[in-house]
Amino acid sequence: MFLDLDKKERTRIAAIDDSGRSVSYGDICDIAEEFGGYLPKRSLIFILSENCIGSLLGYTSALYNQIVPIILSSATEESLYDNLYDTYKPEYLWLSLRKAKEKCYVPLFSVWDYCLVKTGNEHTPMFEELSLLLPTSGSTGSPKMVRHSYRNIEANADNVRRLFKLDGSERAMAILPMHYTMGLSVIASHLLAGSTLLLSARSLLDKGFWQMLKEATSFTGVPYSYEILVKMRFTRMEWPKLKVITQGGGKLSEKMWSTLAQYAADNGKSFIATYGQSECTARMAFLPADLALVKVCSIGFAEPGGQLSIVDENGIESFEGVAQGEMVYRGENVTLGYAYSREDLLKGDENHGVMHTGDLARRDADGCYFIMGRLKRFLKIFGLRIGLDETERLIKSEFNTDCYCKGNDEKLIVMLTNPQIQELIPQFIEEKTHLFHQKVEVQLVKEILRNEAGKVINQ
Prior knowledge:
Oligomer: single chain
Shape: globular
CATH architecture of the largest domain: 3-Layer(aba) Sandwich
CATH class of the largest domain: Alpha Beta
Strand content: 25-35%
């Protein structure tokens, strides 16, 4: 049974959201049983997610009943959503009653301000072990999805449970979106442990967020989360219940890392940095708290149940000793592969437990790994994976202009030859990818130089 939810103490509180209402583990199982009576197993469903109990119940009920969800943000831009809908043709939708009313849908079943809607699309044949599909961290409208198996979800949840020594006493602040792999990892691992989730969709500037955080024993954020928290004087406040602060979704600056590590050391808390990818059900590596001030910006070691290695420029793979090259991860949380279309949902396991991460890493004499850069054309800013090729495609399609994208984990740089659209680009990218427009820099050039193969040179 999914995450052994039916084996938890029925009266234990599983989640509390911004409304102040709570749901127990018994409620989750009862609702899942009722949910399963309205649609056949192995149906394909879109979950238009928000960080609330209604959305959570769609996720748990789907997996509990072997319904396969594609989890999307409820705020997905309409044209991008339409593209995904036309590509995958879900048989059902799980969405808020508010959105259902806006679309004039007739609910089959509703609970906690969410409802089930039948679309009329035909059944989609799927691989028997396929359990879940998630978009990669960016939201550029690409139909590319990461295909998860049931074992992937269970293995990741168990690995994280062991890593953080989670049990039923934990109250985890869950602010990362459900459609974001790191957010779902927080949810799954704490449900497996029988913990309580504090689900919040509030802004970090909202008073209600800070009130909920006072009740949390752990907080998981991306670098941008901590930028805001530190500016709001988080490290100068008293948090008597907070035991662990943990980070993922991108690389912290050395200054921010040191600030958080020192704060934790001075206040009897643990700062545990983690590393992961959507392709590995989020978590892959972590740095133990006692090394946070010593191994600054290291991703540490493989999580429990996983294994890291490095393949050097000569193609030689090593598992220990000083080395530099592409980092490779092995574990049961390595996902099945990608889907680009509805037909791809029939594909089996293409990765077989091995993921070539595309990250350039070095391993020091103590076995700690450090990410040096990326071998693939994508950035990770504010926890968002920004595909450079996909962003170029969006700009070219919208404005009929040549462009070239590059950048680092601090900003996206867009090179253009058309000055008339220069001021439009940052806002356009924010609308399409949700990357904050101030993290987009537009540079005008006379020409984007390309070689005979069409690849950009000297830019």
